[in-house]
């Protein structure tokens, strides 16, 4: 199943995913978002086994809700990243088959933050972009070539959209449109990219 | 009770030269010798055809597994030149995959192209050379050259021509193509920047009503920059790509070569 | 020459002391007994340029209004003979054809070789074989007779007894070649072979000019054939074929033959 990705801009982050859900060559759904929101500006993208995607997203809903009740504040993307990491490592020898991506803006510092994980919680802190899923190779190529530092929100949207659409068009297991979130301080914009429907 | 020493799980310390299969021991006292005629030497090539030029580029790293055989082994060649340095050649061939097969293929096509000139009293066209390469590859249908080839030059109308092949000679003329280890990284970038895929005319509609931007012939300097960007991206994210970038540019005046270093890590 | 023969006639690849290969020379004699065949290349250039203004042809049509006409006589021995079964002009590929004089059966294997060579070239190079390369390919066969050298298998016991006029069109325009059993070939503007070749060649020499049109070339070929033929020329005992950039090689149908023969001045 396909790909979330996230990239960093100037005081903003973007996170996007395609909408296909499939069992190998069989497309089961063409409206299956893989990005979940856990705070005003904290997002988690999940790829991998569909049942694990749903279970893990629900598990973090449960954990983040408890965190908010106990701490009486929203979770920061950094805290979210550590929560994801430790939760995945708990299943070190029977892992969830997911490769998560976290993106958000830290309320206190105002800094954008992204990171990615393997299925047992090893964190990849990146300063530029994180990709995951079946089109990871293609996404590495497009991001590496299209991304540049200090992108403003609109340019960030264009960059992540072009990178994602071009990448999934070269992957038979991904595509069917995409969701893009542009996360700025105090503002989240969600857009639907129609993309190729084949 | 059998005890497996951890060192037996590590890769063999026996020399295995360029072949992926070394000497295997299947049971105590019995040694299985196996020879594999193929190896993967990594690396990547790409080609872009313009209005009156064609650029074919490749990195110069040659590796087997995690080790680097050499930092300068060209994968892009002049075909049909007058001497060993390829002076006077008009056609470019790039090969990735098994380097030995790539070299053999290059030598064979080169001699065919020279023979063609003797037999027919004219330089071979890119179109004819493309078909010849396909028949050479197909002639080894059941013991193929383990190489993915791209062929470029200027066609009979003076337009940049680029042909890409599979291992056994199925081929197609295209505007651009990335091949080899980092093909999956580079190809979507070329789709986006050369054929302008997923680029639309702003304000021309919403959703699927948007009007797609028409791909137009690119300037040579622009294409050169795209090639550099494609490879610097591939070098960052693929361990088999690096060391040097060799760019051969075919125009009506012949073939020009540009070499630039790439990261060696 | 006929006095000096003897032991040098036996070894088919043996030079005589004068440096001659008798069997090859005799094969040239065999052609002199063959029916007459004529080829004429018509450039059609300058004259047609003025013509184009009159007929409002486009310039492109003018530029391609050149070609080669081949013509052969069919010796109709019997009134019971079906003349359409006398095939002395054959297609090699869509852009090359040839006329023959001499032993027809020998021409079969040469033309078969040329056809294979032409198809093979198209397969390997995705382009049509050039006329000169095709002629060369035919002539490569010519000396593969006799015992055969080491490694190369000989396929024939004697030289071919047939000469060919090869007409074709490629990127250099329409061309006419003459190929002999000796393996040599030359390009001609107009050439006659066979029993009437001497008279016919002299006639061509007189009548040929650089601004022949298609119709003039057709007439020239038929007029020349008529002069050297023993029988009275009609639409049944001659055959024409044309090679043009537009239509490639084409053998004339019965209707076309009747039309062209009908144009001849009767005398």
TrEMBL record, chain A:
GO terms for biological process: proteasome-mediated ubiquitin-dependent protein catabolic process. GO terms for cellular component: cytoplasm; nucleus; proteasome core complex, beta-subunit complex. Keywords: Cytoplasm, Nucleus, Proteasome. Coiled coil: none annotated. The keyword Cytoplasm applies. SUPFAM superfamilies: N-terminal nucleophile aminohydrolases (Ntn hydrolases). Transmembrane segments: none annotated. It is found in: Cytoplasm; Nucleus. InterPro entries: Ntn_hydrolases_N (IPR029055), Proteasome_beta_3 (IPR033811), Proteasome_bsu_CS (IPR016050), Proteasome_sua/b (IPR001353), Proteasome_suB-type (IPR023333). Component of the proteasome, a multicatalytic proteinase complex which is characterized by its ability to cleave peptides with Arg, Phe, Tyr, Leu, and Glu adjacent to the leaving group at neutral or slightly basic pH. The proteasome has an ATP-dependent proteolytic activity. PANTHER family: METALLOPROTEASE TLDD, PROTEASOME SUBUNIT BETA TYPE-3. Belongs to the peptidase T1B family. The 26S proteasome consists of a 20S proteasome core and two 19S regulatory subunits. The 20S proteasome core is composed of 28 subunits that are arranged in four stacked rings, resulting in a barrel-shaped structure. The two end rings are each formed by seven alpha subunits, and the two central rings are each formed by seven beta subunits. The catalytic chamber with the active sites is on the inside of the barrel. Component of the proteasome complex. This is Proteasome subunit beta. The gene is PUP3.
TrEMBL record, chain B:
CDD domains: proteasome_beta_type_1. GO terms for biological process: proteolysis involved in protein catabolic process. PROSITE patterns: PROTEASOME_BETA_2. The keyword Nucleus applies. One of its GO terms (cellular component) is nucleus. It is found in: Nucleus. Keywords: Cytoplasm, Nucleus, Proteasome. Its main location: nucleus. This is Uncharacterized protein. It comes from Gomphillus americanus.
TrEMBL record, chain C:
Pfam families: Proteasome, Proteasome_A_N. The keyword Cell membrane does not apply. One of its GO terms (cellular component) is cytoplasm. Keywords: Cytoplasm, Nucleus, Proteasome. Residues 8-30 form the Proteasome alpha-type subunits domain. One of its GO terms (biological process) is proteasome-mediated ubiquitin-dependent protein catabolic process. The 26S proteasome consists of a 20S proteasome core and two 19S regulatory subunits. The 20S proteasome core is composed of 28 subunits that are arranged in four stacked rings, resulting in a barrel-shaped structure. The two end rings are each formed by seven alpha subunits, and the two central rings are each formed by seven beta subunits. The catalytic chamber with the active sites is on the inside of the barrel. This is Proteasome subunit alpha type.
């Amino acid at each position: 199943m396909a790909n979330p990705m996230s990239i960093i801009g100037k005081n903003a982050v973007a996170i996007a995913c395609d909408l296909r859900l499939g069992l190998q060559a069989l497309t089961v759904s063409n409206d299956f978002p893989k990005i979940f929101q856990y705070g005003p500006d904290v997002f988690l993208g999940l790829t991998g086994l569909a049942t694990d995607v749903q279970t893990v997203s629900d598990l973090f809903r449960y954990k983040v809700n408890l965190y908010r009740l106990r701490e009486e504040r929203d979770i920061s993307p950094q805290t979210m990243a550590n929560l994801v990491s430790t939760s995945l490592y708990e299943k070190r020898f029977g892992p969830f088959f997911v490769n998560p991506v976290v993106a958000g803006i830290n309320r206190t510092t105002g800094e954008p933050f992204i990171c990615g994980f393997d299925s047992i919680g090893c964190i990849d802190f990146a300063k530029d972009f994180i990709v995951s899923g079946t089109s990871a190779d293609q996404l590495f190529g497009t991001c590496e070539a299209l991304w540049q530092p200090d992108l403003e929100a609109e340019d960030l949207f264009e960059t992540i959209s072009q990178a994602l659409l071009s990448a999934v068009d070269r992957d038979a297991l991904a595509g069917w449109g995409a969701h893009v979130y542009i996360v700025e301080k105090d503002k989240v914009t969600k857009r639907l990219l129609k993309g190729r429907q084949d | 009770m059998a005890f497996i020493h951890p060192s037996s799980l590590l890769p063999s310390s026996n020399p295995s030269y360029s072949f992926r299969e070394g000497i295997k021991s299947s049971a105590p006292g019995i040694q299985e010798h196996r020879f594999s005629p193929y190896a993967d030497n990594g690396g990547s090539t790409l080609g872009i055809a313009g209005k009156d030029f064609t650029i074919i580029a490749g990195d110069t790293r040659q590796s087997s597994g995690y080790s680097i055989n050499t930092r300068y082994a060209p994968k892009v060649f002049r075909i049909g030149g007058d001497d060993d340095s390829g002076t006077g050649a008009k056609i470019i061939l790039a090969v990735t995959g098994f380097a030995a097969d790539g070299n053999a293929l290059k030598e064979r096509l080169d001699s065919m192209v020279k023979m063609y000139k003797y037999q027919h009293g004219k330089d071979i066209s890119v179109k004819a050379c493309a078909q010849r390469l396909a028949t050479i590859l197909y002639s080894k249908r059941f013991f193929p050259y383990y190489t993915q080839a791209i062929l470029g030059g200027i066609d009979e109308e003076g337009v940049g021509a680029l042909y890409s092949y599979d291992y056994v000679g199925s081929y197609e003329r295209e505007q651009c193509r990335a091949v080899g280890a980092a093909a999956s990284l580079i190809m979507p970038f070329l789709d986006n920047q050369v054929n302008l895929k997923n680029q639309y005319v702003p304000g021309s509609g919403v959703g699927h009503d948007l009007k797609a931007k028409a791909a137009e012939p690119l300037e040579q300097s622009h294409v050169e920059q795209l090639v550099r960007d494609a490879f610097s991206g591939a070098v960052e994210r693929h361990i088999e790509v690096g060391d040097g970038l060799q760019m051969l540019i075919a125009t009506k005046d012949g073939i020009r070569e540009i070499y630039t270093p790439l990261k060696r890590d | 020459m006929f006095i000096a023969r003897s032991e040098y006639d036996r070894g088919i690849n043996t030079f005589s002391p004068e440096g001659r290969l008798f069997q090859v020379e005799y094969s040239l004699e065999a052609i002199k007994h063959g029916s007459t065949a004529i080829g004429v290349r018509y450039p059609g250039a300058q004259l047609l340029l003025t013509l184009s203004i009159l007929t409002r042809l486009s310039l492109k049509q003018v530029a391609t209004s050149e070609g080669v006409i081949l013509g052969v006589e069919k010796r109709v021995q019997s009134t019971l003979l079906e003349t359409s079964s006398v095939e002395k002009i054959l297609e090699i590929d869509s852009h090359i054809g040839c006329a023959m004089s001499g032993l027809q059966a020998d021409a079969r294997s040469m033309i078969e070789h040329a056809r294979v060579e032409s198809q093979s070239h198209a397969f390997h190079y995705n382009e049509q074989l050039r006329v000169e390369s095709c002629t060369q390919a035919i002539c490569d066969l010519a000396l593969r007779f006799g015992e055969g050298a080491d490694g190369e298998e000989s396929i024939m016991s004697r030289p071919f007894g047939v000469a060919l006029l090869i007409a074709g069109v490629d990127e250099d325009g329409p061309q006419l070649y003459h190929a002999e059993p000796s393996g040599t070939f030359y390009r001609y503007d107009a050439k006659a072979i066979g029993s009437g070749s001497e008279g016919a060649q002299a006639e061509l020499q007189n009548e040929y000019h650089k601004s022949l049109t298609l119709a003039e070339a057709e007439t020239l070929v038929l007029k020349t054939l008529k002069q050297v033929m023993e029988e009275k020329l009609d639409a049944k005992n001659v055959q024409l074929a044309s090679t043009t950039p537009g239509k490639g090689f084409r053998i004339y149908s019965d209707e076309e033959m009747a039309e062209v023969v009908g144009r001849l001045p009767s005398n």
